[in-house]
Amino acid sequence: MNPFRIGQGYDVHRLTAERRLILGGVEIPYGLGLLGHSDADVLLHAICDAVLGALGEGDIGRHFPDTDPAYRGISSLKLLREVMALASARGYRIGNLDSTVVAQAPRLAPHIRAMVENIAAACAADIHRINIKATTTEGLGFEGRGEGISAQAVVLLEKISVSEELDV
Ligand SMILES: Nc1ccn([C@@H]2O[C@H](COP(=O)(O)O)[C@@H](O)[C@H]2O)c(=O)n1
Ligand SMILES: C[C@@]1(CO)OP(=O)(O)OP(=O)(O)OC[C@H]1O
Questions:
Q1: Where is this site: Transition state stabilizer (predicted)?
Q2: Superfamily of structural domain 4-166
């Protein structure tokens, strides 16, 4: 049985007026927010896709269709918890998770710790297993023009050993 599974995820959402900006489950004060069927948390969507990829379970749209009213406005932390329940049912937990948010603005550094804590809690993982980076594109491309925000994530899932499950 393979003790490790690796996955990657990528997502983009458009910035628009009259939406709140939510990244990593943290509401960030900004004049614009991300457009989507859910809360459009682009970072959590990339992470969900990375976990689903590691499990060989397709992508977020397959599990939570954007045609289903049940997911309208939903907190993406709930989606991440559901994805992690699937991982746990298969006997996997987060080995480590690394991610990058690409945003020209706002400045995300002051919010990274709260995002890490939210993601660690949703994944039932130690905060030291979760890393979030932020970068601008120096004004280049759609993120640089402030039209949208993208995020990328890579996750390593590790098999929970039987002895650990039994706590012996
Ligand atoms: N939205 C952002 C983008 C970047 N940061 C922080 O600034 C550092 C430098 O970014 P560059 O794009 O100029 O390389 C970056 O490493 C982040 O720490 C940020 O907080 N919010
Ligand atoms: C998260 C879901 C939930 O319906 O909707 P959106 O917020 O539109 O996000 P996107 O990444 O475009 O598609 C995935 C959907 O599963």
A1: 37, 136
A2: 2-C-methyl-D-erythritol 2,4-cyclodiphosphate synthase (3.30.1330.50)
